[in-house]
Design the sequence.
């Protein structure tokens, strides 16, 4: 059976603080272990992925992180440079134009240009070929901007198509848009926590990506899920032992209930299948935890018998 | 320890600014401080940005636009509270506040052109610092036009501490950049905006740049900058006034965070910045702390039948791991923040979404309740 997320470009988003980078890192690790040449991209972020994987900082150049796994931190400055060089062909022209003080000012404030070059670099790697003519990467996984910024970010090619006059920028924007909204290439993975605001934002984001940007969500991951543990009889039996224990069990039951409620809202409030990752209780959340979570997400990125 | 420093703050501050990263409970802390202030007899307004729906409902905010609303006394009484002075809440609409600012300051003939420009849309919604700027702008307006004893500002979730304190400067920089002035001034003088653009750097740079962005884009930017240029003086004055308000002895900052080690650098950095800017930090509030597991709970679990006993013990051990993590985070904050008072609020089982829970939160803020730590 094909993988749930049988696409070459996975965009991982969710409310800030829900574990977006954790899920992106776990998916990337699972994908690489299933034998896919995988590239994980951070977008102008603070090197969370490398820390989670227990590796040196990624930086703006693509680096091999693990077997079949490459990583890069896509930053506007370098992406702008690469894009400009691709358009302009000559380094001297680039220097004269893009390192001009005034031009730097324009590029900083021109709406959408920063986002465009960031996306441009990511999409370039989706299509990049190796010397044998095959794709350099089987799968590109993006730790995308959080809800609130995600829709703006992924709408940029369309916004430019609607606003810029004919020219190289328009051609570029059209190509990017077509690839980004191609359901055979791209799918979104949304991450939530069992709390009110993250669930609200996930439901909104799924809808906005689908209707405004035309990107379909392939999976929703409820991170930090707390599965039911105590039956009603057990609950009553434990309550009889004393107040201290009762309070702790009651707390767990409340969190179980919130988690069940969150799961229910995610299942009924949007269209993608919902997967859960358990809350981990470890003193240090790092590479070992990502390892554990990646095993749980394996079915999303690898074929099964 | 009795007598939380926030007692004094709620008794005398005219402005309380709650700052911190997104998702740490700033809105809850802001609302709890405003509630406390009003209940104790000083009128208050909480100016919030994007509250969770149920919290917004409990404050009667669901139907509100950009206006202040009084929390009905009946609603407070239903929660067992009596406010000695009125409590107000308001949800800030960024876009509308920006539009009002333009309507007030822009020359009538330029207004429509500004509001329709996509550069204005970028400035008012997405330029780094623009949300922070407009929140401060609204705070300044309300502080000068209304007579609430205290206004509590719940700031937008800020990725970087600098964004907040630097917001006014960034917006000024956008509007009044050296490059923009150089570009516009001769053209302005000649009454032909955009003329110089075409001659930018002897046209070579401009030609190449416009190949990249399209010529129209640059001309449009020049038009926008020139329409805005008349407002720069006003913006500069206002920015200065906002800075003075933030540094006023009657303004107090409350830094809100959670006890996660990855937040530590951020909190320390923010704390340093506030002090460097001569701003008064009332307290650091550490929210969502998992309290230690009482030893009695483990003893009680041992008496349970096998099967259930293991489940109960697992539950307690998990809670103990979280408590230990948080204790470590707290120790690191305490070690690094020097004399700044630290206030712990436990993680509640449910999201704080009603007045009663806000009141409980305020009791922790005031030091009336404290997290129990076994000696």
Sequence:
């Amino acid at each position: 059976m094909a993988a749930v997320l049988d696409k070459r470009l996975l965009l991982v988003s969710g409310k800030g603080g829900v574990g977006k980078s954790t899920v992106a890192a776990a998916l990337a690790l699972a994908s690489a272990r299933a034998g896919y040449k995988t590239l994980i991209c951070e977008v102008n972020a603070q090197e969370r992925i490398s820390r989670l994987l227990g590796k040196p900082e990624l930086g703006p150049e693509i680096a091999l992180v693990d077997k079949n796994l490459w990583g890069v931190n896509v930053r506007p400055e370098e992406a702008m440079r690469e894009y400009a060089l691709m358009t302009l062909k000559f380094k001297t022209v680039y220097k004269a134009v893009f390192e001009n003080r005034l031009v730097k000012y324009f590029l900083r404030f021109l709406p959408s240009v920063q986002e465009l070059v960031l996306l441009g670099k990511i999409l370039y790697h989706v299509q990049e070929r190796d010397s044998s003519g095959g794709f350099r990467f089987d799968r590109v996984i993006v730790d995308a901007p959080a809800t609130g910024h995600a829709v703006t970010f992924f709408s940029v090619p369309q916004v430019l198509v609607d606003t810029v006059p004919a020219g190289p920028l328009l051609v570029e924007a059209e190509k990017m848009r077509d690839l980004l909204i191609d359901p055979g290439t791209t799918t979104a993975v949304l991450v939530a926590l069992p709390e009110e605001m993250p669930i609200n934002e996930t439901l909104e984001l799924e809808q906005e990506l689908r209707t405004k940007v035309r990107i379909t969500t392939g999976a929703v991951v409820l991170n930090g899920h707390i599965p039911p543990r105590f039956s009603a009889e057990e609950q009553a039996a434990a309550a009889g032992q004393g107040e201290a224990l009762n309070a702790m069990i009651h707390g767990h039951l409340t969190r179980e209930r919130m988690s069940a409620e969150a799961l229910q809202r995610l299942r009924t409030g949007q269209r993608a299948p919902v997967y859960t990752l358990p809350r981990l209780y470890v003193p240090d959340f790092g590479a070992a935890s990502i390892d554990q979570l990646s095993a749980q997400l394996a079915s999303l990125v690898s074929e099964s018998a | 320890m009795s007598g939380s420093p926030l007692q004094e703050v709620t008794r005398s501050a005219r402005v309380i600014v709650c700052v911190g990263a997104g998702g740490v409970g700033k809105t809850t802390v802001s609302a709890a401080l405003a509630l406390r202030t009003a209940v104790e007899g000083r009128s208050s307004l909480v100016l919030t940005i994007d509250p969770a729906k149920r919290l917004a409902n409990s404050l009667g905010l669901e139907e509100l636009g950009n206006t202040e609303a009084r929390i009905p006394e009946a609603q407070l009484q239903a929660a067992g509270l009596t406010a000695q002075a009125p409590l107000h809440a308001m949800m800030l609409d960024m876009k509308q506040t920006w539009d009002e600012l333009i309507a007030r300051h822009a020359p009538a003939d330029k207004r429509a052109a500004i509001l329709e420009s996509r550069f204005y849309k970028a400035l008012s919604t997405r330029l780094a610092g623009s949300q922070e700027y407009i929140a401060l702008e609204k705070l300044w307006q309300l502080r000068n036009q209304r007579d609430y004893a205290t206004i509590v500002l719940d700031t937008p979730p800020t990725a970087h501490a600098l964004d907040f304190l630097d917001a006014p400067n960034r917006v000024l920089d956008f509007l009044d950049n050296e490059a923009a002035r150089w570009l516009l001034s001769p053209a302005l003088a000649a009454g032909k905006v955009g003329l110089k653009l075409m001659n930018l750097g002897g046209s070579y740079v401009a030609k190449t740049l416009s190949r990249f962005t399209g010529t129209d884009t640059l001309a449009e930017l020049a038009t926008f900058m020139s329409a805005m240029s008349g407002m720069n003086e006003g913006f500069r004055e206002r920015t200065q006034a906002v800075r003075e308000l933030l540094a006023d002895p009657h303004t107090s900052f409350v830094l809100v965070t959670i006890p996660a080690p990855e937040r530590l650098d951020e909190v320390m950095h923010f704390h340093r910045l506030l002090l460097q800017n001569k701003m008064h930090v009332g307290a650091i509030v550490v929210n969502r702390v998992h309290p230690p597991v009482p030893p009695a709970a483990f003893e009680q679990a041992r008496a349970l039948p096998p099967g259930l006993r293991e489940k109960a013990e697992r539950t307690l051990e998990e809670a103990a791991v979280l408590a230990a993590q948080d204790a470590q985070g707290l120790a690191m904050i305490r070690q690094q923040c020097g004399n700044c008072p630290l206030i712990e609020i436990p993680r509640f089982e449910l999201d704080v979404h009603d007045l009663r829970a806000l009141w409980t939160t305020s009791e922790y803020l005031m030091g009336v309740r404290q997290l129990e730590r076994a000696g």
